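Problem 12. The chain below contains 425 residues. Write out its predicted structure in token notation.
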Amino acid sequence: MLERTDLPVVRQDGDVSTVLQSTGKLVEALYEVPLLAHVTMEPQNYTAHVQTSRCDLWGSTQVPDDTQEFAAVLTGIPKCMIKVHLNRSGGGFGRRLNADYAADAVLISKQLGVPVQVVWTREDDLRHDFFRPAGMYRIKGTLDADGKLTAWHMKASTTSRYAFRKANRAPHITEVFPDELPAGFVPNFRLEYQNPASAIPVGAWRAPGHNATAFVIQSMLDELAHAADKDPLTFRLELIGERSVMKYRDHGGDYDAQQLKVVIQLAADKANWGKPLPNGHFHGLAAHVTFGVPVAEVAEVSIGTSGNVVVHKVTAAVDCGQIINRNGAEQQVSGAILDGLNSALYGQITVSNGAVQQSNFHQYRMLRIQEAPTVDVHFIESGRAPKGLGEMGLPPVAPAVCNAIFAATGKRIRRLPILAALKPR
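Solution.
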């Protein structure tokens, strides 16, 4: 496979090229993530009543202001005469950041002159989504004689949602993050990014960008730990070292690297990392900072006699600042972990001849209740201002499971979904 050498540079520290060509141990891997659908429990639907001088709108949306703006443009009615009745949502996860389905109801009501409710079929919902961008990531890393990471070079290419929207912002902003681990922790670092042109609609999907980069980065760190002949926990803790506040230009502001170190150690302790497990069970570790909130997770996995992956338990440690509602916080993290596990194991949208091949749940596999692992969530007690939790538990679960699969089988999962990757191409 030919490798491009002219991708735009997002961040560069030190002299990556020289170090990569040195005598250190070189580790290289290519990772892939697929398009993903949202498949919210409540399919897209909306109700509109367009009258001569006013308009009433009812439905689930994450963007009521945009919905009102759409209706004003489509009807010519002043925004002050358009009322959005905001309902509770049967799932959004980024899909309801787009108001295309609301526009359906507005246009039909305007044409007919009566109240109209539009309800998409599951098939329409699945095939006409704004999908999670697909991407490929080539990473090279070098280790010195002591097994320390000396250089990191990542080339990323995804179908950027900002590029799809023709937004007046750099296309990489929603796709890769120049300040996430190991940036700032390795003296020689280079991140390059290119967005290929694609007509496939893409949009925000729970923990945008991070849902892919966490899988890629945390899997690669595990590969490097193995190449360094170090325990994956020890390798991560040594990489972070004694660094404190890290500049983080992504949403959420700066974060303290020691908070990340603490949640990694806590998750490992609560999962009994390094201690004997039931016969045939193996651990995998991953940690990630999503929108300023560090989360670490340990997955306990076994491989069945038929080669099927069984995830028995996921132990999570979270530092989200002060917790106002502990039960709500636990449910947010647990739900995000199950959502991330579902997509990691099964999630994949494929396109052939311009059409999405999946139509319903018989083709877009979802996690069954009997497949759900035990989820054990632990929070760092803190008096700092509270931060969000709806997305933060999702990114680490895919790499944690993949790293556990490597511990069990010696096979690296470098493309998602996991079950498709375990099958021969």
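Discussion. The longest strand covers residues 293-303. Students who got a different answer should revisit the alignment rule from Section 12.3.
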